[in-house]
Amino acid sequence: MISRRLAAIFALAVFFGLVPAAAQPARLDAQKIADGVWFIPGDASKGYCNNIVIEMRDYLIVVDANYPGRARELVRQVHQLSPKPVRFVFDTHAHRDHAYGNIVWTEAGATTFAYQGVADEMDRYEPERWRQTAAVRDDVRSLNLKDAPRPQLLFRQSPFILKDATREVRFYFLGWAHTRGDGFVWLPKERILCTGDAAVNGPRNKLWDANIANWQRVLTQAIAFRPLHVLPGHGDAGGPEILTGQRAFLHDLYATVKQQIDSGKRLAQVVPVFPGRDRNWIPKDPRQDVAITYAEIVQHTPAGALPHEWK
Known about the structure:
This protein is of the alpha/beta class and 311 residues long.
């Protein structure tokens, strides 16, 4: 009798706010793209990329490990979309905001995987980038690691396919674009394409590790899938205009810089001229994009193969 009275008193205290209730995970901001496919916008203020969750018959696939802080949030929240476990996490490329959360997912029971080029990029640039990031980000530093965790499984033949009775998911490498290891995720039945940073919606990309000339050709291949939905690594979800817009900007950037190089201008003299179609992708200050493109053209070498530092 006493225990029942105490329980009732405690319940009333919680109801009236005298005793704090157990903290509940924040509601996950997820946009349903199709049955069993959700687009989760990243928080740009924290540097987070977008994520995509794909439901299979018995498990979930998450696209991009993200930063450790976001990975921890998603591990707690993803059950709001489906009670099934996350079995696979796919790194679209090696950059920190897409892959540094790998160990959070593996400790939660998932397997991380990627195209071979992602691990190659990590071997090329890590652990220096990891150390630089840990110096400025608490979520990376909190892992107490000296190097970036690599994806556990790698594929070399494209496409790599996961398939069951409910859905087929294809993972493609189409060539060196934003990085040497860019992976695309294609759902053929639903005609949904996840692009990582090979195509973003807005002026949210960086060209340091890119092959700018070939990037345009990679996007032409992606456009040939004829997707209905395009889910980018950054920016809002949309349709094929994300692919065509990203490709047009890269084409016009390359063309305006090359034209002025051919006319004899040095880097300091180059003033980029963009048509109106590029408005959504032009950064406020395009000088960095111009400098990287200039270096690729005059040195006849992909920008990402030239000596450079992550900034």
